[in-house]
Write a structure and sequence with these properties.
This protein is 81% helix and 0% strand. Helix 4 runs antiparallel to helix 5. The longest helix has 36 residues. 10% of the residues are buried.
Amino acid sequence: MVERIFQSSRFLVLVTVLVCAVAAALLYAASANVVYNVVLETVTAMPQSADGGKRLAVKLLKILDTLLIAVTLQIIAGALYRLFISPLPDNARCIATPLQINNFHDLKVTLIQVAIVILVVLFLEQAVEVGATLETLYFGAAVALVIAAGVFASITMKEQTTQK
């Protein structure tokens, strides 16, 4: 009986899957709306200076950042569904298959890698928006430290997976 309860409780993960899927869809829709408005704004009032071009670049980087977060939520939803609810056969296609997410460690490694890309985009936003200031240097150092920790964690997790 206890085993049956635990087997059924895995479907609670569906709540997380649904929340992640809805959040990803909302972020995709919001990003599409923002892209539409940025394109409309740029076509009607093309930037005339370097500062205007920088502002446009920052807007586009922020859109990219939002899209990367949406992709992350989509990866989480697909991988959690595959890992907990419905393991797919090897020949089936889902978002977790091309990313080679076969267990929870693989999911964590993939999320760390996506987070590193998001941090790089955030640093680019800072560098373009603020420029070469001491604040940007400190932010870059903090981002580099977090990226180094993420790479170390990712390598360590991959080694642990291959040793098993």
